[in-house]
Design goal:
The chain has 206 residues and is mainly alpha-helical. 77% of the residues lie in helices and 0% in strands. The chain has a single domain, classed as Phosphate transport system protein phou homolog 2, domain 2 (Methane Monooxygenase Hydroxylase, Chain G, domain 1, Up-down Bundle). It holds the Pfam family PhoU_div.
Length: 206
Amino acid sequence: MRFRLTPRETSFYDMFAASADNIVTGSKLLMELLGADPSARAEIAERMRAAEHAGDDATHAIFHQLNSSFITPFDREDIYSLASSLDDIMDFMEEAVDLVVLYNVEELPKGVEQQIEVLARAAELTAEAMPNLRTMDNLTEYWIEVNRLENQADQIHRKLLAHLFNGKYDAIEVLKLKQIVDVLEEAADAFEHVANTVETIAVKES
């Protein structure tokens, strides 16, 4: 860790941790969606929308703090990138739930549960990692594991696409389901972006 002569604004750490905790809430709602009766999905979508709004508030708080702080704990562009990537995760998860409801999907294709399980694990790891930004300790395993999970998500996504195009579904259903699994894949990519940003910060601060 580099020695600094000037004090730094430390509230960013708490705000990043709160943002990551909210993502865990979103991942749990995704898991809940899997086992829910179609008639219960609209209510889950409402709770996900509330979580997404809370995520927006957390992101705006970070940006406001960034704009009003003379000294920051690490580079401003990295703070902006980390906050934006965390926000992207919630946006993609909320979009996936909303699409399931809007498209009146009766049954999600086999494999979506694996996508969501990967996202839930990545959410847990991210929430565990954010408090460690204070010391930059015990972060290497985090970004290695999230990158491994993203590779796993890629494989699941490709298998899902192959399943969707095997002729079992009609063309309109394929379009609906493909959009949902694509958005879930984007959420996995966003987790990797967060991990890569954390790695960049750790390297700069070492």
